[in-house]
Amino acid sequence: MAFYNNNVPLTSISSPIAYLFGVNGITDAMNSLKGPLLSQVFPSSLYPAVIQNLTDPRVGFAHLENLDIIHNQMGVEPYRLSSLIIFSNGKMNKFRFTDKRIQSSLSRRWPDNFFYGLPSLDANVLCSFSAFKVRMLQKMRNLFRENCEGIAR
Known about the structure:
3-stranded mixed beta sheet; 6 helices
């Protein structure tokens, strides 16, 4: 399981995920040294479906099975990963609040569009958001196969 956490939405800077798939992505130049040439560890063909699921608030995660990790110039040796679940840092429609005051009190930039630090409420709700993702994984295993069709190999 991997949590992608960044203070910039994947729709604005896709390179941290794209480079892992050997694909050029939108970058802010902070992570562009050789880009995908050094960073690729996953097959490029999987990237379009993965980024689509990570940026879709109806899904918010990608699930890959029997994933071949490929050799790269940084010394990663090939192997097969039985399962990888990547959770996005973007909004997920399924994450809701019983108390509507929480939603109305969060920054409009929550959860993935902060310049630096987060206000206390936003930071605490971000922790709850991560816990929600783990609970979702534990309770809804079938959801992965239904929503990630075309990604799982």
